[in-house]
Amino acid sequence: MIPFLRALDGAKSVLIAGCGGGFDVFAGVPLASYLMRRGASVAFANLSFANLTVCGGERLGQHCWLIDDRSNDLPYFPELRLAQWLAGRSLEAPVYAFARTGVEPLRRAYQGLLAKHDFDLVVLVDGGTDSVIFGDEPGLGTPAEDAISVCAATAAHAGRTILACLGFGIDHHHGVSHYAYLENVAALIQDGGYLGSISVTKEMPEGADYLDLIDFANERQPALRSIVGNSIASAMRGDFGDCHAISRTKGSELFINALMSQYWAFEASAVVARMAYSAALADTTTFGQVERVIENFRAGMSVRTMRGIPL
To answer: What is the pLDDT of residues 97-122, one digit of tens each?
Structure first.
């Protein structure tokens, strides 16, 4: 059996957390659908871009809020869309939102949720693949949020933390080298940190749930539809190449492809061990500090050459 599936099948209580913030948490819905059908309890969390101090949700700690379908409708609030979608389908899964901070405050926020729910597995989900980052890649995409989440969750959880990426090719328009990503995967295979890949298709109930959520969010938030979510949905529906499902991507080049609907799973600790600046991030308290740490490391390291995947 694929090690990733073995880990899911052995879990009874799972926290599924958006790694890079925004709509990343949506990438965990197929996993939650699979787990709930098997009788496991699931909770969601996400590194939020919203101003959570005015979200109307219950505050559970300095940097964590419980979001439900009655929370305030803020301009960019994927956590609310997920809570509304779950409530509309009578699915029992709480949704938590974390403020965007440094690693140390987020670690404490994760610890609070772990104490509250006693999760035996944490799955960080990334919409895209730029969370699998060592620091010397030619293009990093948006590395700060991913690095914060991977480092904080791994430090907080004494049990197993898995990083699952859904959306190979999405980060093309952010300048990410997918050659470098595959090179990183090879290194993690050597380290024993790669847990295999599984596909999500539109015929699967898990895939149908994901497509339903994307359609629901598109309708509720038409001005800020998810680039990542709609790209993955396009791949699941059989689109290929420079296909644009939403107007937000017009003017950029997309790489919609069948691998985009495939999870790539890793031991989060293995990714942290390969991340050049993970130790320097541990004591950061603000998002700005994290950005400066990454910038300083990049300035002093030799960066890999940008290479394309051979044709």
So the answer is: 999 999 999 999 999 999 999 999 99
